[in-house]
From TrEMBL:
Pathway, per record: Porphyrin-containing compound metabolism; protoporphyrin-IX biosynthesis; coproporphyrinogen-III from 5-aminolevulinate: step 2/4
InterPro entries associated with the record: HemC, Porphobilin_deaminase_cofac_BS, Porphobilin_deaminase_N, Porphobilinogen_deaminase_C, Porphobilinogen_deaminase_C_sf
Organism: Arsenicitalea aurantiaca
Quaternary state and interactors: Monomer.
Enzyme Commission code: 2.5.1.61
Function comment: Tetrapolymerization of the monopyrrole PBG into the hydroxymethylbilane pre-uroporphyrinogen in several discrete steps.
PROSITE patterns according to UniProt: PORPHOBILINOGEN_DEAM (PS00533)
Protein name: Porphobilinogen deaminase
Cofactor names: dipyrromethane
Length: 314
């Protein structure tokens, strides 16, 4: 018998980080179960993105949007893969022509977590303690509440960060709880931050699937993975971010809640130094998620005024 390489049932594109691979494997397992095929028939194609290659500086300095998604989108356009698996919060608010987000899996925990080897809670960090984060949003939120802390640049995956904490590069760090849960690292969490005080990035905790809009076969295969409530919340948060022309790397936070067909979206803008903050909320029918998010963005821009917006943009 000769070995034959059969065409894969579907090809998923993903970054190669441990978190990205965990997300891709989750999508692979769900699709395999849903369609009654072997997991191996769903190929995982690892794609290195600019965000992975640039390790020596904060991504907010690199500028440009979609640093973690661009090369995956090119692979989609070139037909090398059928679907891209992304962290929702890494996806630019405007997609390249011809591409579409067709499904969001049920959202993980939206909250941020504090990790420290020496302090039992963020509030226990003494004046001058060093908090490691390269996220503009987290840095601004911390500066707002705890201007006495020293923010130090901090990148890398969970293991690297824990190593840096052991080496004393910082006394604590902040990470998305969703990622820690997906990597079975929840036990490393010192404190879960209150999302009322530290609202997350738009679309945090949601895995999104992107396809070529004309690819009806893939659409049919992946659309059933969509979790309706997650998509409503994420659409509102992305519309809010789009109106502000923001990315994952601007100090913008959002939190939405759904109940009885009503959607409430709360939004927050901060200046990078954390000194100024503008917040607001909109409630309306869940079916109008995009319009609600957009209206909230417009409301906060008006509330903030041009001077704030200039400093907010960095
Ligand atoms: N840009 C990095 C990134 N993109 C998505 C997540 C977390 C996982 C998620 O939001 O689903 C992270 C790491 C972090 O913020 O701790």
């Amino acid at each position: 018998m000769t070995l034959q390489s059969r065409a894969p049932f579907l090809r998923l594109g993903t970054r190669g980080s441990p978190l990205a691979l965990a997300q891709a494997h989750e999508v692979q397992a769900r699709l395999a179960a849903l369609h009654g095929v072997d997991a191996e028939a769903i190929e995982i194609v690892v794609i290195s993105t600019s965000g992975d290659r640039i390790q020596d500086r904060p991504l907010s300095e690199v500028g440009g949007k979609g640093l973690f998604t661009k090369e995956i989108e090119i692979a989609l356009e070139e037909g090398v893969i059928d679907a891209g698996v992304h962290s929702g919060k890494d996806v630019a608010t405007r997609l390249p022509e011809g591409l579409e987000l067709v499904a969001f899996l049920e959202r993980e925990d939206i909250r941020d977590a504090f990790l420290s080897l020496t302090h039992g809670a963020l509030a226990d960090m003494p004046e001058g303690a060093r908090l490691g984060t390269s996220s503009l949003r987290r840095a601004a939120q911390i500066r707002h509440r705890r201007p006495d802390l020293d923010i130090v640049g901090f990148r890398g995956n969970v293991q690297t960060r824990l190593q840096k904490l052991r080496e004393g590069v910082a006394d604590g760090t902040l990470l998305a709880l969703a990622g820690l849960n997906r990597l079975d690292q929840r036990s490393q969490v010192t404190e879960i931050l209150d999302p009322e005080l530290f609202p997350p990035a738009p679309a945090q905790g949601a895995i999104g699937l992107e396809i070529r809009a004309e690819d009806t076969r893939t659409r049919g295969l992946v659309a059933p993975l969509d979790h309706a409530e997650t998509t409503i919340a994420v659409r509102a948060e992305r519309a809010f971010l789009r109106e502000l022309d923001g990315s994952c790397r601007t100090p913008i936070a959002a939190r939405s809640t759904l109940g009885n067909g009503q959607l409430t979206i709360f939004g927050q803008l901060l200046t990078p130094d954390g000194r100024e903050i503008v917040e607001g909320e909109k409630t309306g029918p869940a079916g109008e998620a995009d319009a609600l998010g957009q209206a909230l963005g417009a409301m906060l821009i008006a509330r903030a005024g041009p001077d704030f917006i200039k400093r907010f943009a960095g």
